[in-house]
């Protein structure tokens, strides 16, 4: 991954949340080259960061004006029959546009670096052209939440080696950066083996229209950082991302720290904050890379409560990938039902009957209708909480059994969306260094 000299993250001033719309490929005017010191747009005009941010806001508002509403007629072209099926289940056949190479627009938009020059020979599209899967190219811009040194930055580098990692100050901004073509992908955490689900990202997956195109699992090895010369006994406060605090809770207690815990936006941001404010009574939980970047010393190494601490990140793109069957795939869906949780057993049985393993199930409040009143003449009125259910299962949407399972699920549910069908992260398991055999599992 290209190393960044600590650029500050994109702030949430980009624009209000994106509507269900799609920016067409010729809106690449929004593509910015984001450097550590200054940012220049494709036309070469140099800008400082403040200019860049306000330019983003202006450009963003232009894009909103130019965006086309989603074609609800179902006439959008999909890459093949499988993608057709996915889109149909999604209930929004809009996203895959075969016109990936805007040939006609080449002459009308000379500034666009994506247009094919008229004299270039035209190569036929191949399966790779249709698949916005990892390009491993140096130009791929990948949005993550946090500042350099955050685990999310490392996850972006693992998912897309040689990418240009773009820091964002909030998860939502990372979604927006992709929707606005400021970034090509976002890499965001969804769950940790100790801390559990990152609920915010589950909610955002539903509110935005990005597609999961991959996953990456990152072993998370935490360090306790303080300014050089600070001893453990001086530490009165430990600050970090809430997930990191949760992942180190037992060890912090064992270290005998008499310190209050305080949550901040990200682990590396905590280190940066201590360094910037010369806080000699405060320590951060963050990575060894954050220590290096912000001139901190490592007071304790490997302080996660379990050496096999791992965070799962999803890779998000504007377009889905075409599901395949030549390697293990996972599919993520979200569904709800008017009649509430009673449908859950039926839905899950659609997978069980086909021998499809579930790898994850999560429920979140149904934002549009959080409470359902159930009247019973004899007993009175009961209030049931309503949920959205998120399920990951081990099959590709290219498999008939997965298509049949989803067809059945669709019958049982009032809402169903396929968030993505994508290759499973099969990288060999390598837990953090350290032996936690003696640690209490509870
Ligand atoms: O704060 C960071 O460094 C992050 O990348 C965020 C985050 C998370 O949200 O879970 C990522 C991995 C670790 O689990 C701890 C924190």
Automatic annotation (TrEMBL):
Gene3D superfamilies tied to this protein: 3.30.70.260, Periplasmic binding protein-like II
Functional description taken from the UniProt entry: Converts the prephenate produced from the shikimate-chorismate pathway into phenylalanine.
Major localisation: plastid
SUPFAM superfamilies in the record: ACT-like, Periplasmic binding protein-like II
GO cellular component: chloroplast stroma
ACT domain residues: 332-423
Family annotation (CDD domains): ACT_CM-PDT, PBP2_Ct-PDT_like
Species of the source: Salix dunnii
Compartments, as annotated in UniProt: Plastid, Chloroplast stroma
Top-level taxon of the source organism: Eukaryota
InterPro entries, per database record: ACT-like_dom_sf, ACT_dom, Preph_deHydtase, Preph_deHydtase_CS
GO biological process terms on file: L-phenylalanine biosynthetic process
Protein name: Arogenate dehydratase
Signal peptide residue numbers: none
Catalytic reactions on record: L-arogenate + H(+) = L-phenylalanine + CO2 + H2O
Enzyme Commission designation: 4.2.1.91
Domain spans labelled Prephenate dehydratase: 141-318
UniProt cross-references to Pfam families, sorted A to Z: PDT
């Amino acid at each position: 991954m290209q190393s960044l000299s600590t650029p500050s993250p994109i702030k949430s001033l980009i624009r209000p949340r994106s509507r269900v719309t799609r920016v067409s490929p010729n809106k690449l005017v929004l593509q910015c080259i984001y450097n550590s010191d200054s940012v220049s747009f494709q036309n070469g005009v140099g800008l400082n960061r403040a200019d860049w941010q306000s330019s983003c806001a202006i450009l963003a508002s232009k894009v909103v004006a130019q965006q086309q509403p989603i074609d609800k007629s179902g006439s959008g072209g999909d890459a093949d029959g499988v993608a057709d099926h996915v889109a149909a289940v999604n209930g929004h056949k809009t996203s895959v546009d075969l016109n990936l190479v805007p040939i006609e627009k080449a002459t009308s938009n000379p500034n666009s670096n994506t247009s094919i020059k008229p004299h270039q020979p035209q190569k036929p599209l191949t399966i790779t052209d249709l698949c916005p899967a990892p390009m491993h190219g140096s130009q791929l811009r990948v949005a993550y939440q946090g500042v350099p040194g955050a685990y999310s930055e490392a996850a972006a580098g693992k998912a897309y080696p040689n990418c240009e990692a773009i820091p964002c100050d909030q998860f939502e901004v990372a979604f927006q950066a992709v929707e606005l073509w400021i970034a090509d992908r976002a890499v965001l955490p969804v769950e940790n083996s100790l801390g559990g689900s990152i609920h915010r990202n589950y909610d955002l997956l539903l509110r935005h229209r990005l597609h999961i195109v991959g996953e990456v699992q990152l072993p998370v090895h935490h360090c306790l950082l303080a300014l050089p010369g600070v001893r453990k006994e001086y530490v009165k406060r430990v600050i970090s991302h809430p997930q990191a605090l949760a992942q180190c809770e037992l060890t912090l207690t064992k270290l005998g720290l008499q310190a209050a815990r305080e949550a901040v936006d990200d682990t590396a941001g905590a280190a940066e904050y201590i360094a910037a404010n010369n806080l000699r009574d405060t320590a951060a939980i963050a990575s060894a890379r954050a220590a290096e970047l912000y001139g901190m010393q490592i007071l304790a190494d490997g302080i996660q409560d379990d050496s096999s601490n791992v965070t799962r990140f999803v890779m998000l793109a504007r377009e889905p990938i075409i599901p395949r069957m030549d390697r293990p795939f996972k599919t993520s869906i979200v569904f709800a039902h008017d009649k509430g949780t009673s449908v859950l057993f039926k839905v899950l049985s659609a997978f069980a009957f086909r021998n499809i393993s579930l790898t994850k199930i999560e429920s979140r409040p149904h934002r549009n209708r959080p409470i359902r009143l159930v009247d019973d003449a004899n007993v009175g009125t009961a209030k049931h909480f309503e949920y959205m259910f998120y399920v990951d299962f081990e099959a590709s949407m290219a498999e008939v059994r997965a298509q049949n399972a989803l067809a059945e699920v669709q019958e049982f549910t009032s809402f169903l969306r396929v968030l993505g069908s994508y290759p499973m992260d099969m990288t060999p398991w390598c837990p953090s260094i350290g032996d936690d055999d003696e640690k209490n599992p509870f």
